[in-house]
Amino acid sequence: MPGSVGDLYRLVSGLVRLHAVDGAGYGVTLRYVKPGGYFGVEALTAQRRRYFAEAVTDSSAEPVEVERLTRQGLVELSTFLASSLEHMSDSLLRLAGKPLRARVAAELLELVDSALAGTNAAGDSVIYLTHDDLAAAVGSVRETVTKVIGDMARSGALRAGYGKIMVLDQRLLAEMANA
């Protein structure tokens, strides 16, 4: 919850979404935390937390006592933080400068190997999320995201169903994300 500093956590299982909400109630996903990742990094600097951490799937996290980390643990944490900074920079550039179709494609590619995804009998990746959740993640609204998903489905990149999106062509989706 925004405000108090709290603890540093390492995600053991599941998927956690870090998101911010502005004064008007509009939200945007900052990043996802996958198993092995950390959140609550404000605990390292005693800065005020400015985002929400929400378990998107059944998740388990463990508190991390920074002062007890071994040298290897500190290297692991530092590497994760550097990677997260780069990922968030990419996400912000995508939000600021990419068309919605590219943002949606990139978000789906990010979730293909997450706890929200599985594989169907044909071997296709299936991401279990609603158009509302996807819209919140890319800074848009459900109606517009639904139109984009329909266009992507007509191109053969994916197929959408109730509460799920099947990725049929990851290469095509990657091309859309980089447009």
Summarize the structure.
The protein has 179 residues and is α+β, with helices and mostly antiparallel strands.
Structure explained in plain terms:
With 179 residues, this protein is α+β, with helices and mostly antiparallel strands. It folds into two domains: 8-97, Jelly Rolls; 100-177, Orthogonal Bundle (Arc Repressor Mutant, subunit A), CATH 1.10.10. The protein contains five helices and ten strands, in the order E-E-E-E-E-E-H-H-E-E-H-H-E-E-H. The strands form three sheets. It has a four-stranded antiparallel sheet with strand order 7-8-10-9. Strands 4-1-6 form a three-stranded antiparallel sheet. A three-stranded antiparallel sheet has the order 3-2-5.
Across the major sheet, the strand order is: 7-8-10-9
Radius of gyration: 17 Å
Write down the overall geometry: globular
The CATH architecture designation of the largest domain is Sandwich
Helix-and-strand structural type: alpha+beta
Assigned CATH class of the largest domain: Mainly Beta
For the sheet with most strands, the description reads: 4 strands, antiparallel
The pLDDT mean sits at 86
The CATH topology name of the largest domain reads Jelly Rolls
Total helix count?
5
Write down the secondary-structure element order.
EEEEEEHHEEHHEEH
Distance between the termini: 35 Å
Task: Note the beta-strand portion.
Answer: 15-25%
Number of domains: 2
Kindly report the name of the CATH homologous superfamily of the largest domain: Jelly Rolls
- Count of distinct strands: 10
